[in-house]
């Protein structure tokens, strides 16, 4: 859960925010416990300009409050919790596999469609090439047998124009 506190941050307002979050968690999972939190502070100087504290490397200052000796950092996972975690992990893996299979299927379908288009294009090109070669063969044959029909100003053409 993310908590955003607007305005000046005081110990009372932090406690109020933690209490509000606890109520939300309790409504969903009674008996919950919160372990760990990240708190990001935005400080302003007396002139209203934001500033941050930095360590010797120039990185934002970080304060860690360690757990007391013997205190749990987080609770141990119960058998039921482990079973739920494994089930969620398996479900995520299954969904990832399904998504990968679907992506592979779409990729294969795209490749198949491309191949079909390529085959159609090759067939049309072959038909056009055959028609062109047939037309060239006919023209070559006509040039051999009746060259006078293709020569400008030939007697045959002149006679046809006179008629």
From TrEMBL:
Compositionally biased residues, Basic and acidic residues: 81-97, 124-133
Keywords, in A-Z order: Plasmid
Source superkingdom: Bacteria
Region annotation (Disordered) ranges: 76-163
Protein name as it appears in the record: OfxX fusion product
Organism field: Pseudomonas aeruginosa
Gene this chain is encoded by: ofxX
